[in-house]
Design brief:
There is one protein chain. A hairpin with a 4-residue loop joins strand 1 and strand 2. This protein folds into two domains: 13-80; 95-316, MetI-like (MetI-like fold), CATH 1.10.3720.10. The N and C termini lie close together (9 Å). The chain has 13 helices and two strands. It has helices at residues 5-28, 34-45, 49-59, 65-77, 91-126, 131-145, 148-162, 177-211, 214-221, 226-264, 269-278, 282-310, 312-316; strands at 83-84, 89-90. The chain has a two-stranded antiparallel ribbon. The radius of gyration is 24 Å and the shape is elongated. The protein is mainly α.
Length: 321
């Protein structure tokens, strides 16, 4: 049974609350004084009592645990995400700048991998006994079994030897659009490859299940071509499940993209989280994880809306067999 829209909205809110609670617990679950973990033992030893008290108040670490949690939620909901000691700027400002670079990498990769994986998987599922498409399926399975960052490292080695492309980093102001695109191309290609591999395997499986239904034999017996049966009958029936899988896979794709950013020094959210961890910048780390969680939830909500448009039974909460 598929949840109705009102029920889904409640689930999204509950998921967001759980993510915020986990962010809050990141520091508090560690044994000892949270301020020691944030500053390090040497940094904490250099603090005076007044400075330590001021920092506890600034970071929301003063008072009871329930009071800290309440103030934390209030700050998040009112947009007061704190001040980044690593960057010397408000957390929201830094996240706004970095998020656009992650979206520049993730959104085109999601579109391209969905289209390419859907098409390759449909053809491979229809012609699953063809040796060429069988080899393609094995290749995609091997490709997906590798983490995205591992593919990125292999790509760095290959490109450094044979292809004259920028290996890492980002263009500075004034270098122009082509310089940015040159450094964007390699991490983009890695994210697309990994995403296409997964979606190819999913669509191949879905098409393989649909082929077993009687309507396929009926359509072929009426003289319809393979293309007409595949694109006119099979694919429309697989699209609701495929869209749902793409939405569920988005969270994993975001995680892979963040690690690819670190490999290629692409200054997006992944590099931001990595820098925040190294600098013990708890407000930035909490804000970045919150922003990523909200982005994934919004994307999944959009996937639900698209799935409801494709198959009205999903939007109405009707069981889909």
């Amino acid at each position: 049974m598929v949840a109705k829209p009102s029920g889904k909205f409640g689930l999204y809110l509950l998921t967001l609350l759980m993510v915020l609670s986990l962010n809050f617990a990141l520091v508090h679950l560690m044994p000892g004084d949270p301020l020691v973990h944030l500053l390090g033992e040497e940094g904490y030893a250099r603090l005076t009592n007044d400075t330590a008290a001021a920092m506890r108040e600034e970071l929301g670490l003063d008072g009871s645990l329930a009071g800290q949690y309440g103030r934390y939620l209030a700050k998040i909901l009112t947009g007061n995400w704190g001040w980044s000691h690593r960057f010397g700027q408000p957390v929201r400002h830094v996240i706004g700048l970095r998020l656009q670079w992650t979206l520049m990498l993730l959104v085109p990769a999601l579109v391209v991998s969905t289209l390419a994986g859907g098409w390759l998987g449909a053809v491979a599922g229809w012609r699953k006994r063809d040796r060429r498409y069988l080899l393609l399926s094995h290749f995609m399975l091997c490709l997906y079994s590798l983490p995205a960052y591992c593919i990125g490292l292999l790509a760095l080695v290959a490109v450094s030897r044979w292809i004259p492309l920028p290996l890492a980093g980002m263009a500075i102001a004034g270098d122009g659009t082509w310089a940015v695109l040159g450094q964007w191309l390699l991490p983009f290609a890695v994210v697309v490859l990994h995403g296409t591999a997964y979606k190819t395997m999913i669509m191949r499986h879905l098409v393989g299940l649909e082929i077993q239904h009687a309507y396929v034999i009926t359509a072929l017996s009426k003289g319809l071509t393979d293309r007409q049966v595949l694109y006119g009958h099979i694919l429309p029936n697989t699209m609701p499940a495929f869209v749902a899988v793409v939405g569920l896979n988005l969270g994993f794709m975001v995680g892979g993209t963040l690690l690819v950013e670190v490999v290629f020094s692409w200054q997006g959210m992944g590099t931001l989280v990595y820098q925040a961890v190294l600098a013990r910048d708890y407000p930035m780390l909490s804000g970045a994880l919150t922003a990523l969680a909200v982005s994934v939830l919004v994307a999944n909500a959009l996937a639900d809306l698209v799935g409801g448009r494709i198959d009205p039974r999903i939007a109405e909460g009707v069981p889909v067999e």
